[in-house]
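Input record (one chain):
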Amino acid sequence: MDKPIPAANSAAATAAAAPAGPLDGIRVLDLTSVVLGPMATQALADLGADVIKIEGPEGDLMRANGVSRHAGMSSIYLALNRNKRSVVLDLKRPEGAAALRRLIAGADVLVHNMRVAAIERLGFGYAAVAAINPRIVYCVATGFGQDGPHRDKPAFDDIIQAACGLVALGSSAGGRPEYVPSLIADKTTGLALANAVLAALLHRERHGGGQSVEVPMLETMASFVMAEHLAGLTFEPATGGAGYARLLQGGRRPAQTADGWICALPYTDRHWKAFFHAVGRDELADKYDIASRAKRNANIRALYRHLGEITPARTTAQWMALFEALDIPATPIYTPDELPGHPHLAAVGLFQRTEHPTEGPLREMRPAARFSATPLSLRRHAPALGEHTAEVLREAGLAPEEIALLAGGAETADCAGGNAP
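The corresponding structure, as predicted from the sequence alone:
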């Protein structure tokens, strides 16, 4: 693991210690909580934006979910809130709302995942915010698009997984429906939200003026799932049902070895011929006429059945050596516990050891993207609740006596997305 990265405790220390990313100079007001919104705003923070996390006195709900050393600083919170500053404001109090309006005046982006009615009640719907700052990009993550009949329904990751067809895909072979064991709807929609913010900022740069942007979870995930599964429904009239047969009818699957599991993916006729020749089963290449892509695809389940019958004869390491020699895509099956030791991830330093001022030594993941001119970095530790309240409000021009009056926070109920295990 890399040498520990010291925690940055001020904007000046941060600027001196780490390079700025391509969004340096962009200020984001982050009124999100749980998973979806923080995933999106962390993507912007990793790219160099100054993300100010507005929290209520109770803090982001996700501060309590996951593994914790100290209350309010859970593993999930730490993973989703690096490179941000935390400000506590109570938007239900006049002085808290007034402070947020001061921050809005100097911001480039405001992101929230409250229900629209809830933020309107607080006085921070798009019209009110744009009246303060017409150039602001105002982005809301909703559960369901606001022009549809489900616009007021609550939305969580499980609900969207079920509603978008993802859960049904997993049970297409007749098994019990199960949720994907990852907050995939929250995280996928979060990345879509970050992309939407970037597009709106580019539009503002080219044409001037801000705008309102909505990223609904159900529509985002339905598009995500159906990209390969629209199938016969693509055409009017439909030529068949939905579903990508190659995935739904089985075939490719992990193979057991003498000491574990491996994912091997012979993809071309050359791959299959080389594999069968290496294991002394040339007759199988002839039997299934694998030179024909159509016939190979038609027999894919039989081909992988043979592969699964052959692989228990050797160890994972032996198979990896053979597949690498044959240039066949393959990897051992890694558990999450094993990922920090993955030879590639270790070599590129994805997992880094940092020092947090309250949580001590941490293992964190650096931003994955690489920029040659504006490199990304772990500039800031995930903040304690309200850690930067006075600092940020001073920057906004509030007097010490005004700052002293503030103890509040943002509305955190009625959010779209983010129920976590």
